[in-house]
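HUMAN:
Sorry, I am quite new to this. Are you able to go through these amino acid letters and fold codes? The numbers rather puzzle me.
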Amino acid sequence: MLKRTKSVLALALAGALMTFGAAARAQTVTVFHDKPFYQAGWDGLTATAKKSGIDLQFSAYATDQFQAYIQSSLQSGDAPEAFTWWNGTKLKEIVDSGQIAPLDDLWARKIAAGEYDASSAEPFKVDGHIYGMPTGLNRWVVFYNKALFKKAGIDKVPTSWDELMASCAKLKAAGITPFNASLQEGWRGFIWFEELLIRTDPDAYVALNQGKLKYTDEPVRNVFKIWGDLYAKGYFTDPASQEEQLDFARGKAAMYLAGDWNIGLIEKGGLKAGQDFDGFIMPNVDPKVPKVVIVEAAPLLISKAAADKPEIKAFMEWYMSPAAMDSWATVPGLYAGNNKAKAPNSIVQQIAKVASDEHYRSMVRYWEASPSEIVLPAVEEFNRFMTNPSPQAAETAMKNIDAIASQYWAAHGG
């Protein structure tokens, strides 16, 4: 995670507060976020909102500045009217501030109208109440480059771990790196850790995030062994890249484990979804465990102080409508669960059908599933392992993370 000086942070907070104050005076609905890479999508929503008489704007910040701003606002009792956040433990942490509006009535209307399934609200629940509107309900899948698969003589999508490893061997033999994986933006280190753990022991993954399993226990050791073996075989790209999506589009690797929100970003690199690349849910390492998939749910939150304002109420009704979600799906290629909105692309449509037809169990992403006090230092350890994927580095990472987790759970009853 990037660290910035107090003076820079103070200026960012002051600027954000000034922007927020001006927006409130003009009765403009301003949504604060840390996703500038969705700018085309935010612009599309702004234009569509204008047609419905809603004055909407979006204000972007770097993730560390954004988190500092929101936390500072909550501590001062002056939360922004609308802002994006994360689900899981991160959502509960700020709901506990008492400043976030429950949206149960809004969701009840939308579900009754057939626009959303009740299951779409589950990731945004805290203590039985719903606290977010979706900016994304995104599954983490493996994208694959069709031309590179063909070049390596792979004629079908792997449906078992053995088939996946056989495909990797063919790709490597053809001079093609199998997997794209980087440390871009500092947070990505946990992706392969969580994926390998749910593919070997999903119950252990849940237990780990609840403090009922140690980071030095066998399920975690098994993950680091598999992960390290994949590195030893040369199956990953250089982790130092800061252009992960473009690297995949440029053909630097044949496969890319990522959230389906990356599809639009890959297309910007020149590949077309469904035509040049497609996707599949990674098969389990252990075929005996249930079918599971990581689902990243990103909520848009409303403060209690703003929830009854006419312009905010109008925004909420509009935002969860098919018209808004059609715009969101079209521009950045994102999916937010509205049943009456169009699917953003063929990959999302196909994966959603597979997950539904084959009854995949949804797993909360590690970033949201485990407490922030553990996740942030753990990610730094995972990052270090990716730059030096040796058995010794794995042992160090496990011990260091376990020391932090043990201390946290001792204080919080895990």
